[in-house]
Amino acid sequence: MPLKSALKIGTVRETTFVVEPQHCIEFATDGMPAVLSTPNLIGILERTARQAIAPFLAADERSVGVELDLRHLAPSPLGAKVTATARVIGTTGRFVDFQIEARDEQELIIRGIHKRAVVNAASFTKRVQSKTR
After folding, report:
1. Which tens digits make up the pLDDT trace of 45-90?
2. Dihedral, CA of residue 63, residue 66, residue 70 and residue 72, to nearest 10
3. Would residue 7 count as lying in a domain?
4. 37, 79 in Cβ contact below 8 A?
5. The CATH number of the domain where 58 resides is what?
6. Domain count, the chain
7. Whether the model pTM is above 0.70
8. What is the extent of the structural domain holding 17?
């Protein structure tokens, strides 16, 4: 499924946020500090990648995450300012590959590769509905 317009290698999107309680690990008790959780960070990175290519999609297209290869390298405490970055590093057919990373004000906290597939929204909906019958 081709994108409506030419997506360029190097297209980038950034999302900056402050780590709030809802972003933190749920086991921050008994001496364990409140830090940004990996699942929340992955969600923000995926959303950033989706937003990076959204302007290049046709009205009936969406992108869905299909692959992640990440290393969570360092903790970010409650109140830290974090910037998540998604950069297009390749395209093959309906797939778009991203280099993703996030940094807090002191260091790189996560880095990896993320792949998204461009899908037709109506076809995808039919496929999901076939599983709910």
Report:
1. 999 999 999 999 999 999 999 999 999 999 999 999 999 999 999 9
2. 70
3. no
4. no
5. 3.10.129.10
6. 1
7. yes
8. 12-130
